[in-house]
């Protein structure tokens, strides 16, 4: 079934939020009478804010525990670790396609869900918060997939087996820096997805 143009525009607004409004000059609410989608949007923006807050708490723990607080001081070590930012360029492409953007968000949430296991090993005293963050990432991914199905968009289904292998760290310092960058990258990913 074809997706109404207003629904695709609203979906784009979900991802680009204020910048998109400025370009098109129309408030999101006027574009859609679909209250279910408005509710989805509101709940999941709040949910994303909550996840960002939990990531920020863990970033402070890494800063306080390991004195790893400033990214620019760790860039050389980062190159050795091979930890990269999960891309979201499909969400800002001139040829925006909701399926491609949501596929990247799904892929990113799945990747961060898996890589948070390295943070779990690093911060055993904060197991509950890291596990909550993993669960929230999985739930947000599930919410997005359900909304895609509701809109009649193609969905991305991942295998149910566990995440891929964790990065291997040659020293405890590299593990600490790896945890720092996993959290920093996840925070940037969430901020981009939220916008």
TrEMBL record:
Where, subcellularly, is it found?
Secreted
In its UniProt record, a GO molecular function of this protein is: granulocyte colony-stimulating factor receptor binding
- Highest rank taxon of the organism: Eukaryota
Q: Name one GO cellular component term.
A: extracellular region
Q: Per its UniProt record, what InterPro entries does this chain match?
A: 4_helix_cytokine-like_core, GCSF/MGF, IL-6/GCSF/MGF, IL6/GCSF/MGF_CS
Q: Offer one Pfam family short name for this entry.
A: GCSF
Q: Which UniProt keywords apply?
A: Disulfide bond, Glycoprotein, Growth factor, Secreted, Signal
**Which SUPFAM superfamilies does the record cross-reference, listed alphabetically?**
4-helical cytokines (SSF47266)
Signal sequence bounds: 1-25
Q: Which terms under GO biological process does the entry name?
A: immune response; positive regulation of myeloid cell differentiation
Q: Which family does it belong to?
A: Belongs to the IL-6 superfamily.
What PANTHER family does the database record attribute to this sequence?
Answer: GRANULOCYTE COLONY-STIMULATING FACTOR
Q: What is this protein called?
A: Myelomonocytic growth factor
Q: Which gene does this sequence derive from?
A: MGF_CHICK
